[in-house]
Write a structure and sequence with these properties.
CATH superfamily of the largest domain: Medium-chain alcohol dehydrogenases, catalytic domain
Shape: globular
Structural class: alpha/beta
GO molecular function: oxidoreductase activity; zinc ion binding
Largest sheet: 7 strands, mixed
Protein name: NAD(P)-binding protein
Number of strands: 17
Organism: Fragilariopsis cylindrus CCMP1102
Pfam family, one: ADH_zinc_N
Radius of gyration: 21 Å
Distance between the termini: 54 Å
Helix content: 25-40%
GO cellular component, one term: mitochondrion
Length: 386
């Protein structure tokens, strides 16, 4: 049987696209900033996690550094006081090591760390300021709560205004929506084009992206099978009501369960584990099945000795691959932002935040990343910055 395999590592791609448009170090125009009394609290320096150079791991390279607040902003930029930042295993591992989408980091010094976060706008560039009074409901103003991508492990960061999501408040639940939920929506609804009645396997279904994917698949009327690694996660998935079948791979054999639950094969797999689980997913695809590869946590550097770290590249390359380039992906996600925010606002999409333990301050980020990579987490791991 030939399978159609849609492979796109969007846990990297989605951030890279947004980061490219918002990574300017920027400067704060204090004449502009003075238009709001709230900006008087902006300090002259702020703390951020910076890597002096690429290294073996995030913990090895992450250093808390004092950075001067610059004097002016680009006309289309804003300055954000960061409240919460998200933790991504692949993004931060590869960014720190200068691998995959972050290979360029091997050739630079003093690069900022962190991906998505939420916070409050404390200053805006001249062009952004002019748009505040044009009646545009999406206009960004000082004091607005926003989701952003770029240098989130920092007390302050800059972003292009057009890349921001305006939100009601900078709550940790919104952090997961910015990359994890957006990626799940784009992968399932745009790339995978899931249809009512299809049988879908979501691996790591209680994880940061997985719990969004399971909910979206259920909303689409699919038969949803979720895998997880503990009875606690089984209970959480039951409470979400997003899975028709839940497989605890620590206590059940995935292949046996899939043979029983989906004897005719899987139409779609949303896969973020890699290794043996990816191979099982490939083996159980229907003739026209689609695999949406969003990660491979079993094969990240911290798991080199993991028994699930098997080579599936030959198997994958024997099947048809379809990869999206940056411009194609950007078009696909254009409508997913509003859909994700609308579903969340209506209570149809829940955002889980892993809060055991709680991580507070830049000093806790390395521990938060290790916790995220432990496989013990549920939902999105978030660090409270300030």
């Amino acid at each position: 049987m030939r399978h159609r395999s849609l492979l796109s590592f969007l846990f990297i791609t989605s951030e890279t696209l947004a980061f490219t448009a918002s990574s300017s170090t920027g400067n704060i125009d204090m004449n502009i900033a003075s238009t709001s009394s709230s900006t008087s609290s902006v300090p002259t320096t702020f703390r951020a996690l910076v890597a002096k150079s690429a290294g073996k791991s995030f913990a090895d390279v992450a250093t808390i550094t004092n950075i001067a607040v610059p004097s002016s902003l680009e006309k289309d930029e804003v300055l954000i006081r960061v409240k919460y930042a998200g933790v991504n295993g692949g993004c931060e591992t590869f960014r720190a090591r200068g691998e995959h989408a972050f290979q360029g980091n091997k050739d630079i010094k003093d690069f900022r760390l962190g991906a998505e976060g939420v916070g409050y706008v404390v200053a805006v560039g001249s062009e952004v300021m002019q748009q505040q009074g044009d009646g545009d409901g999406d206009g960004i103003s000082v004091g607005d709560a926003v989701c952003f991508v770029g240098s989130a492990f920092s007390e302050y960061t800059t972003s292009k205004a057009k890349m921001l999501w305006k939100i009601p408040d900078a709550k940790p639940e919104y952090v997961g929506l910015r990359i994890s939920a957006l990626t799940a929506c784009a992968m399932l609804e745009q790339t995978g084009k899931i249809q009512t009645g299809e049988t879908i396997l979501i691996t790591a279904a209680a994880g940061g992206a997985g719990h969004f994917a399971a909910q979206l698949a259920k909303l689409a009327g699919c038969k949803v099978i979720g895998t997880c690694g503990s009875n606690e996660k089984v209970q959480i998935l039951k409470e979400l009501g997003c899975c028709d079948h839940i497989i605890n791979y620590k206590e059940q054999d995935i292949q046996t369960e899939l043979t029983r639950i989906a004897p005719n094969g899987l139409d779609v797999v949303f896969e973020g584990v890699g290794g043996e689980i990816l191979q099982i997913a490939l083996d159980n695809l229907s003739p026209e099945g689609r695999i949406l590869q969003v990660g491979y946590i079993s094969e990240y550097p911290h798991n080199n000795s993991n028994e699930d770290d098997t080579d599936t590249d030959t198997e994958i390359t024997s099947k048809k691959k379809e990869r999206l380039n940056a411009s194609e992906y950007y078009k696909l996600i254009a409508g997913c932002k509003d859909r994700v925010l609308d579903l969340y606002a209506k209570g149809k999409l829940k955002s889980l935040v892993d809060d055991t333990p709680k991580f507070v301050g830049l000093e806790s980020v390395s521990d938060a990343l290790e916790h995220m990579l432990s496989g013990k987490t549920t939902g999105k791991v978030v660090v409270e910055i300030q």
